[in-house]
TrEMBL record:
Domain of life: Bacteria
Protein name per the record: Uncharacterized protein
Organism taxonomic ancestry: Bacteria, Pseudomonadati, Bacteroidota, Flavobacteriia, Flavobacteriales
Gene source species: Chryseobacterium carnipullorum
Length: 260
C-alpha cells in the first residue's frame, strides 16, 4: 500500500478500531480475522480499475470471504464491531479522500448489500453503552459524504433496535452529541432530515440535550441551521417541554426543513 491517503486512512482507522474492539470486548482472534478482510477490501479498492467485469469479480470474491468470516470464523457478538467498520469504510469510499467514485462496485457491496443486512438484523443487539462506543468510533471523519447514507444508517441502527429506550439520560445525551458532531462536520447540507430525526428522539427528561440543541450550529454556519437555532430559541411558552414540542412542530413544517 504505497498511496499516502490509503496508508493514512489504514493507520487512523486501525487505531480507532483497537479502541472500539476493546470497548465491545471483541476477542483478539476475531479482531485479526475481521481486520484481514477490511485490509483486503482496502487493497482491492486501491488496486481497482474501471473495468466493470473485473470489479464484479472482486466484489463477488470479497462478498464470499465476508460471508465465510461471519458464518464460521468469528463469534456472533463480533457483528457489533463489523457493522460500524462497514459504515466507516463506506463513508470514506464515497468521499474524495481515497479515490474517485468510479470504483462503484465496491461501494455497492457495502452500501446496497452488506450494510443493509446488518443494520436491519435485530439479532445484532447493541446495549446503549455499546452504541455509545460505536458513535465515538464514527464521529470524526475526513469528510461526511452525502452519498454514503452514513448518518441515516447510524440512526437506523438505533431505530430498528430502540436502543435509547433502555439508555440512561446521560448515555443518550452523550451518544447524540457524537451523532450531532457528525452533522456538524458536514460541508454539504442539502437537507436536515437526520437532524429532524434527532429532534424526534428527544423526551421530556432530556433537559440537557434540549439545551445543547438550542445552541447547535454546523461548522460552515449553513443557513438552515441558523434559522433552526433561531426557532429553538424563540420565547413562546413558560413550560419548557411544551415550548420545545411546539418548536419541533414548527421546524417540521418549515419550508426549508427538507432542502436548503
Amino acid at each position: 500500500m504505497t498511496n499516502n491517503s490509503y496508508l493514512t486512512f489504514k493507520n487512523d482507522e486501525l487505531a480507532k478500531s483497537k479502541i472500539l474492539a476493546k470497548e465491545l470486548n471483541i476477542s483478539e482472534t476475531d479482531f485479526i480475522n475481521i481486520q484481514f478482510w477490511f485490509d483486503l477490501l482496502l487493497l482491492k479498492h486501491e488496486e481497482a480499475t474501471s473495468n466493470h467485469d473485473e470489479q464484479l469479480k472482486v466484489e463477488k470474491e470479497l462478498e464470499t470471504k465476508f460471508n465465510e468470516i461471519i458464518s464460521s470464523e468469528i463469534e456472533r457478538k463480533s457483528y457489533l464491531y463489523i457493522l460500524p467498520k462497514l459504515l466507516h469504510y463506506n463513508n470514506v469510499f464515497n468521499d474524495a479522500f481515497l479515490r474517485s467514485l468510479y470504483v462503484s462496485r465496491l461501494g455497492a457491496l457495502l452500501r446496497d448489500n452488506l450494510i443493509p443486512k446488518l443494520v436491519n438484523d435485530k439479532t445484532i443487539v447493541y446495549s446503549p453503552e455499546d452504541f455509545f462506543h460505536v458513535t465515538v468510533y464514527l464521529k470524526d471523519n475526513y469528510f461526511v459524504s452525502p452519498n454514503s447514507n452514513f448518518l441515516e444508517d447510524i440512526l437506523k441502527i438505533e431505530n430498528v433496535r430502540g436502543i435509547f429506550k433502555q439508555a440512561t439520560i446521560k448515555v443518550k445525551f452523550e451518544t447524540l452529541k457524537n451523532i450531532l458532531h457528525i452533522i456538524y462536520q458536514k460541508t454539504y447540507h442539502h437537507d436536515i432530515i437526520c437532524f429532524k430525526k434527532i429532534l424526534k428522539l428527544v423526551s421530556e427528561t432530556d433537559s440537557e440535550l434540549i439545551g445543547y440543541l438550542k445552541n447547535f450550529q454546523v461548522e460552515n454556519k449553513q443557513g438552515c441551521y441558523k434559522i433552526i437555532k433561531d426557532i429553538l430559541n424563540l420565547d413562546l411558552f413558560k413550560d419548557n417541554w411544551n415550548d420545545f414540542e411546539i418548536k419541533v412542530q414548527l421546524i417540521s413544517f418549515f419550508r426549508y426543513s427538507q432542502r436548503c
